[in-house]
Amino acid sequence: MAEALRTELEGAGHEVEYLDLREAGLPLCDGGECYDEPTTKSLRASVAAAEGIIFATPVYNFQASASTKNIVEWSR
User: Fold this and answer.
1) Residue 36 structural domain
2) Number of domains in the chain
3) Closest CA to 21 of 46, 47, 55
4) Radius of gyration of the chain (CA)
5) Number of alpha carbons in the 13 Å side-chain half-sphere of residue 68
6) What is the overall mean pLDDT for the chain?
7) 39 Cβ contact list (under 8 Å, min separation 6)
8) Longest Cα–Cα distance in the chain
9) Interacting residues of 66 by C-beta distance below 8 A, sequence separation 6+
10) Backbone angles phi, psi at 69, to 5 degrees
11) String of b and e for 23-55 (b: at least 16 CB within 10 Å)?
């Protein structure tokens, strides 16, 4: 689903930054030191510069994954 959307947006001329959490190597949000990690700083800069954000995430027991929740925590 995410790949199809990415292809569609790029085909329409939009700039797309794609992040696959399986490959990103992001730390879990601990409310402290994780904010100093280079990967977290890069993610936060991307989120701050984005015109829009689309999440494609599995849902477990009516909740988004912990990795998705981490992104929300880091982007504040």
Assistant:
1) 2-74
2) 1
3) 55
4) 13
5) 11
6) 85
7) 24, 25, 26, 27
8) 39
9) 28
10) -65, -35
11) eeebeebeeeebeeeeebeebeeebeeeeeeee
- E strands of the chain, at which residues? 59-60, 63-64
Question: The tokens 């329409």 sit on which residue?
Answer: 12
Separation in Å, CA 57 to CA 12, 63, 66: 23, 10, 10
Encode pLDDT of 32-76 as tens digits.
888 888 888 888 888 889 888 888 888 878 887 777 887 787 776
Q: Tokens in use for 45?
A: 């800069």
- What distance in Å separates the CA atoms of residue 37 and residue 16, rounded to the nearest whole number? 23
Residue with tokens 């100093």: 36
SS3 19: coil
